[in-house]
Write a structure and sequence with these properties.
Length: 303
């Protein structure tokens, strides 16, 4: 009885007339998501059990690498509280274009389509949930899930070869299974880590959990595998560790190792994706993208 009262109270806060209309809205939205996601060939989540590993940077540069190979690419920035994909692509200040059919996402470098909470916010304005600030963290999580579902259902992605979903730092326990349930035929997840043993311990748990909730782990990318000297272009170690043993232990493909590059860091900070395909770090991302295309065996739209 108490649980029923609680649900009724939540529905009232959301100003929905009754449970039936809520269920109808969710069903209609799910059908819309399925229809729009059906126009996207491949969908991949990018996550990490640890913050600070360069997950968004990896997502952005992977998207650029795929786009350079001729694919039509989109990025869903699922980090609602600290979205940074638009800044890395030089798209801050962009907005969705509203149409009767839905929201048309801004298009960035290499024709990459991006959906991000950043496009709804003013300069330096934080995310603010409507309603009482004494809502529990669980309820805030439900609100986040509603936003993600609306992103997927209301945005006119059109035809894409690939959609990368950049999950929040740490990928809270509710995010991977919810993303999997919202995105029909999710191909799997790419996990980002660093060679640090501390990071490896956390990422190990994330990989096991991701598999436990039914999401295929496509592979692991080791970021900051070393430091790339801007003068002599040689690579030196940053951490006393490696992800090779982790991959062997969990039977996860190691997709590639990306060194820390001051040039790439500058490019992300200033929203200027590197265009020099001879750059060492750029070549690494290109190799990973080409390997994934072969591994997933997908053709480009029209191919």
């Amino acid at each position: 009885m108490e649980q029923t009262k609680s649900v009724k109270s939540i529905l009232k806060k959301l100003e929905y007339p009754d449970d039936a209309k809520v269920m109808k809205q969710l069903v209609d939205q799910s059908l819309t998501v399925k229809t729009r996601m059906g126009k996207i060939r491949r969908k991949i989540a990018v996550l990490s059990g640890k913050g600070g590993v360069g997950k968004s940077m990896t997502t952005v540069n992977l998207a650029v690498a795929f786009a350079r190979l001729g694919l039509k690419v989109g990025i869903l920035d699922v980090d609602l509280n600290g979205p940074c994909v638009p800044k890395m692509l030089g798209m801050k200040g962009e907005k969705f274009i509203m149409s009767p059919e839905g929201a048309i996402p801004p298009v960035g470098p290499y024709r990459i389509k991006v959906a991000s909470m950043e496009f709804f916010l003013g300069k330096d304005r934080p995310v603010q949930w409507k309603g009482s600030m004494d809502l529990s963290p669980v309820w805030l999580g439900v609100l986040e899930m509603n936003v993600i579902r609306e992103f997927l259902g209301d945005i006119l992605w059109g035809e894409l070869d690939l959609l990368l979903a950049d999950l929040p730092p740490g990928a809270a326990a509710d995010k991977p299974p919810v993303i999997a349930s919202y995105i029909p035929e999710l191909d799997g997840a790419i996990v980002v880590t660093t060679p640090s043993e501390v990071t490896g311990d956390v990422v190990r748990k994330s990989i096991v959990y991701t598999r436990d909730v039914g999401i295929k782990v496509i592979g692991l990318i080791e970021n900051m595998s070393g430091f790339l000297c801007p003068e002599c272009h040689t690579e030196s170690e940053l951490f006393d560790g490696s992800s090779d043993l982790l991959c062997q232990e969990l039977n996860v493909p190691l997709l590639g190792k990306i060194p820390f590059s001051k040039k790439m860091s500058y490019a992300c900070d200033h929203g200027q994706p590197l265009s020099d395909e001879t750059d060492y770090a750029v070549k690494k991302f290109s190799q990973i993208a080409a390997g994934l295309m072969n591994q997933l065996k997908f053709k480009k739209i029209g191919g």
